[in-house]
Amino acid sequence: MLLKLNNRRKFFILNSHGGNESTIKTAVTEITGEYRDIKIASAQYTKLAPKAIKKNIKSEVFGHSCEREVSEILYLAPHILRKDKLVKGEFKGMPYPFMSIGGDPVNVPYTLEELTSNGALGDATKAAREIGEEICLEALDNLEIFLRKFME
């Protein structure tokens, strides 16, 4: 394995897209199961900012073209945002009981078309640069705490 050949023993994967989460977790589990001397950690960066998200994000369901994502874009790369296209999500509801966007407690794969009429969850019109900054900085602070310990 290339990781072993390069004498690396610890790796961290920072995920920025929720749709990748299960694939990354499976890959990490498989690799570390086969190569016991390698440690791999992964994280969905927004899960590292729970306080900022709880404080600022008021939509019951969010996660795609929502006030959280758009706030982060306003902070990190405002030049890519088409502000005239921002809309409130038209959430249809979850198709089954106990199902959630994050897959807890019951995981049923879904497409955005099944959950929203316009592709958006949450309310992008409530996005603000300051919210994005708060989320990103909390995530970075928490990531630094983790990585300092993990990389020892």
TrEMBL record:
Keyword line: Hydrolase, Metal-binding, Zinc
GO biological process terms held by the UniProt record: riboflavin biosynthetic process
GO MF term set: hydrolase activity, acting on carbon-nitrogen (but not peptide) bonds, in linear amides; metal ion binding
InterPro entries: Creatininase-like_sf, Creatininase/forma_Hydrolase
Cofactor(s) needed by this chain: Zn(2+)
Domain of life: Bacteria
PANTHER family according to UniProt: 2-AMINO-5-FORMYLAMINO-6-RIBOSYLAMINOPYRIMIDIN-4(3H)-ONE 5'-MONOPHOSPHATE DEFORMYLASE, 3-DEHYDRO-SCYLLO-INOSOSE HYDROLASE
Record-stated family: Belongs to the creatininase superfamily.
Name of the featured protein: Creatininase family protein
Organism, as annotated: Koleobacter methoxysyntrophicus
